[in-house]
Amino acid sequence: MKPQALHPPKWPLKFLRFFLKEEYLEEIEGDMEEIFYENVERFSVRKAKRIYAWEIIKLLRPNLIRNFEFVNQLLQYSMLKNYFKVSVRGLLKSPVNSFINIFGLAAAIGFCIFFYAFVVYTYKRDQFHENKDVVFLSTFTASREGALRQYGLSPRPLGELLKQDFPQVTNICRVEDRNVIVKHGDNIFNERIRFVDPAFLDMFTFPLKWGVSASLSDVNSIVISEPMAEKYFGDENPIGQSLLVKFSAENGKEFKITGVANKFPSSRSFDFHFLINFENLRTAQPGFDLHDWSAFHQATFIQVAQPSDIKIIEAGMDKYKRTQNESVEKEWAIAAFQFEPLATAHIKTDEIREDVFREGTHSNITSIKFLTGVCILMMLLACFNYINIAISTSVKRLKELGVRKTIGATRKLVIVQFLSENIVVTFFAMIFGILLGWLVVIPWFEGLWHFSMEFSLNDPRLWVYLPIIMLITAIASGIYPAIYISRFQTVTILKGSVKFGQKNPITKIFLGFQLVLACMFITSAIVFTMNGDYLANRSWGYSNRDVIYTAVESESVFQQLNDVMQRNPKVLSISGSAQHIGKNHQTTILHFPDKEFEADRLSVGPTYFNTMGIELVSGRAFKDFEGSDRNAVIVNETMAKNLSWVNPIGQQFKIDSITYEVVGVAKDFHSYSFFSLLRPTFFTVADKNDFRFLALKVSREQEQSAFEDLKKAWATLYPEIPFNGGYQENVWGNYYEQMGIHGHVWRVFASVAVILAMLGLYGLVAINISGRVKEFSIRKILGANYKNITNNIFKQYYVLIIGSLFVSVPLSFIFIKSVLDFAYDYHMPVTIWVVMMAASLLIAVVIATVATQIIKVFKANPVEGLKTE
Amino acid sequence: MKKTKLGEFEELVLLTVAALQQDAYGVEIKRELESRLKEKLSVGSIQSALKRMEDKGFLTSQFGEATAKRGGKRKRIYATTSHGRKVLEEMKDIRTQLWSAIPKLAFELKAI
Known about the structure:
The structure holds two protein chains of two kinds. By secondary structure, chain A is of the alpha+beta class. Chain A is 51% helix and 17% strand. Chain A is globular, with a radius of gyration of 36 Å. Chain B is elongated and about 60 Å long. Chain B contains four helices and two strands; from the N terminus they run αααββα. Chain B is of the alpha+beta class. In chain B, helix 1 crosses helix 3. Chains A and B meet through helix 2 of A and helix 2, helix 3 and strand 2 of B.
């Protein structure tokens, strides 16, 4: 055994020496050490150390710990009881102020709880896999367009070879996805099916609800997910039922269901609908070559015995790299193989291209950064409210303070008193905050995005997090007022010569800061709402409103459907294409004499430009589809710009050693929503046999009935094949819904921020006015009118409001501009007017808040005011 | 009897100290009690019981020898005081009396 392992752990020992009574130290330390060495012999060193530490914690007993002077001084039970009583009385005495304090802090804590739930949700993604540290996704890096990119694909023979060559590899699993038609009775749907090696269910932790996972080694078995079982069979147990899977029109196979997976955890980036044995790939695609180095599998996962084994494997990957690069063309050469652990793949998946994972957590992590900011700002707003109100109301408590100090309270004790009162307030706030977060904020957010964070109050970490939040809040909000108030000398207080509260500059600075924050939040809300409208009306670069489309299996299907729809009077134009805007494209590498360039390729039929309403900027459209235009291309503006062509027409490049010439330039259009940047795109003519999409331009206002006609035509022609088409405006999926949600979220943040700031202002004005009741009464008796009093009250806030506007307008402008640039590639132009709008809204709310108090003063009977005290 | 206030656990510890005589120091007391009670005890519970009883005057203690196993720290050997022994005996007497009262009570109850 190593000598250093033979010492008891240091930290617990230090702790023991700190808290234990001096006279017991030698004995107990010795006892502990003796027991430790005994345990070392009986158990592992680690366990002995653990026992040691735990035993020391258990030594924390009142008659063993030393007398800590300061603890004794501060923690006098009866005094604390008194503090508690005083603070509850204080809360009840001024319900408005208590409400402002508690509500503000509760709102902030509610957001913090939501934030916590979101962070937990994000970071627990995929962590339910028991083998998450020993299962790796095989990826490779390759240089494309001059940058090193990571791809989630793997050469086909790689998995098998790794298993043969490395004893460390215990399991491999290849994954291929195919679009198929699944049929059971009358249920026919287009589905995506996953071909996997039988080890899949061993490597990934997807427990089965029914059936056995080992059945996957049978080529006739199919394992389905819970939603799929419900879709095809309802609530009944489908084990033993059969499903017909049609890989293509003629090629189908009957599978027996041998497993149904449990509901998947909601925080996952990898799952399945249908699993079948990998061997079926040969049935699905006769002639599928598993040994072709130049072709890829969608994914290969390997499992190793120890996480560190992956280093050995990575070091031995060179020979595969050589084989791989010999069998492909130079442009596809890879730089290196790399393995991504399953545990962290969800963070990297957004950078890895063409991997099998669904959307990763990248955007969530961005949101977390945003939310951190929002939560801290909310906390600040709430704390400032508290500080302001505490300082202003303390004027009423000066006498109490004086008395306390006279009968022996030290300054330290006064600070403790104020802090402990604060803890009482924060405690109440925390209870409301938990309810608010749990019952309002989290369900609201989940409802917006249609997902479940699976938040539960049972999480033990939450109960560590919450008290920390509570203590931080209590101290952050309480320490300044406590120090400020405790500073006053007893004699001056009791003489009554102290005047403060109304004229404290700190109060004003805090209030100004709140106004600035509120202005920033309002600006965000306005801008995000306006931006949603702006993008909804922004042109996609082609006509999306009157186009419908459907996917077709083959040229013959296209022809038949074409013939039917041609006769339909609502149809203005029909076009076929191999790829379709918004649905797919072919990533192609173009060769120039001096460089290579990656672009999206769309192969289209004769009337495609007309049907989709794509405009040409220069050059000509395709004319001769059978002959001379076969090697012609039309590029979009972005491509011409990225290649810095001054005169694009006539430029030439090669694809797979065939030379193409540019004949026209099309106006830029958005293929995949405004979230993604415009990509260099070009059109070539498509052979009729390659048509996989049929697009229809229909008369305006007739889209719906034309779409019904198309569906009907499809149903009569192909009752066995599910219809797979839609409106062109829906190809971006839930993009507009997402835009709407962004607006919604910011409006809620802004409302809460404004409410907090206004509550603070209201509290301050109310305190201010209640201290001047006599003054106003006298003014009124002497004939002051509305105007005089309004002037008088507002006088104190002019400078504050104007000052904070001067700060907040430029700040909000810069803030919102950077947020928009950061969040969207395409967004509305931000003008100063938007910020001005936010500022005027804020001023309106401020005036309204102060006005409520002015009205109260004006309506009050001056005689009552003079009678007070 | 009232003033002595000997808890159940304390009584066990005190008896162990009396039984172990010269060997009665923290670890040994813990070991002995653990083997008799057949359960794990923490150092904290034993030590706090010892210190409490020392305060009440049931026990006295003095430093014993240091061993290498203890990193050179001395043991503290505990011994019962006469007062402690008296209290223990009292407890025992009360118990025996109560035990001897049981069959009689049960018999009388049956007779009613």
